[in-house]
Amino acid sequence: MNVNENLKPAVVTVGNELTFGERRNGNQEWLCQEFFKRGAPAQIVLSLPDDIATISHWIRHLKETNHYPIIVSGGIGGTHDDLTRQSIAAGLDLPVVKHEECFAILAKRYESDERPFTAQRQRMADLPQGCDLVANPIGAPGFHIDGVYGFPGFPSMVQPMFETISRDVFGDVKAEEWLSVEYTLAVAEGDVAMDVEAFDKAHSDGHVGIYPSTEKFGREVTLRLRYPPGRDDLRDAFSAQVMKIADRLGVKPL
Fold it and tell me: I want to staple 91 with a disulfide (CB 3.0 to 4.6 A). Which of 60, 82, 181, 225 is the partner?
């Protein structure tokens, strides 16, 4: 068994600007793609507001339902609406304390940049008790504790930090990007649904989706299979099934 099959990832992005629809959620998209590439698709994906009660509720729920890893992006800065540090602590029933190592890193960074290390900036060192740091090459450190990872909201920080933790999460398994194959048929979704459902039940080691055209709704549908590397047999079985469907309906794949 691929060890990644034992993972149950959760991707959580935090920020009113996301829940208000003011900003595209690039971190969510990127993190989901990275988990999928490693053969461990995210099992739950959440966008949450800057609210301690809401965030802590979901952290607690994700832990109770054995999700791992839980990646939380956004809201670990030092402004009034950066509440993720406190929320993760509350969700894990932990106090927030001054993390001395984080404080020293921040103090040195601001000193080297000749910027004042204000009380607001010092807040970024207030972290869940007992957590370890995740190095950030261009900003304040993130942190992790009990399978929960707190990252900033900036994609330029999230991406290298995710790579930093990837070995801890995935072990020594080399990331092998999953493959996909798709066919478009000039038919309605309902014409192929049962055939595709039967294939999906018989081949649970892949991920099959049916996607009606938004422009030709009811007249065109795309069938897509995502499959692990080295599973050409799964790809070939899917292709054969699509050809049977097309032949039955008297159409040709587009």
Answer: 60
Pairing of strands 207-212, 221-227: antiparallel
- Cβ atoms of residues 30 and 13 within 8 Å: no
| Cα dihedral across residues 88, 94, 95, 101: positive or negative | negative
C-alpha span between 72 and 59 (Å, rounded): 9
How much is the pTM?
0.85
In this structure, what token pair is assigned to residue 37? 């590439």
Identify the residue whose tokens are 């969510």.
28
Beta-carbon contacts of residue 212 (< 8 Å; ≥ 6 apart): 188, 189, 218, 220, 221, 222
To which residue do tokens 């009660």 refer? 53
pLDDT of residue 3: 46
Mean pLDDT, the chain cut into blocks of 10 residues (254 residues total): 70 97 96 90 97 98 97 95 97 98 94 90 96 94 97 96 91 74 96 95 93 91 93 96 96 92
Do residues 42 and 162 lie in contact, with contact meaning Cβ atoms separated by under 8 Å? Answer: no
Q: How far apart are CA 127 and CA 142, in angstroms?
A: 9
**Rounded to whole angstroms, how far apart are CA atoms 146 and 132?**
10
To the nearest 10 degrees (0 to 180), the angle between helices 52-64 and 84-91 is 40
CA distances from 167 to 90, 162, 190 (A): 27, 10, 43
Distance in angstroms (rounded) separating the CA atoms of residues 190 and 172: 43
Query: What is the distance between the alpha carbons of residues 31 and 253, in angstroms, rounded to a whole number?
Result: 32
Residues in CB range of 35: below 8 A, 6 or more apart: 7, 9, 11, 41, 42
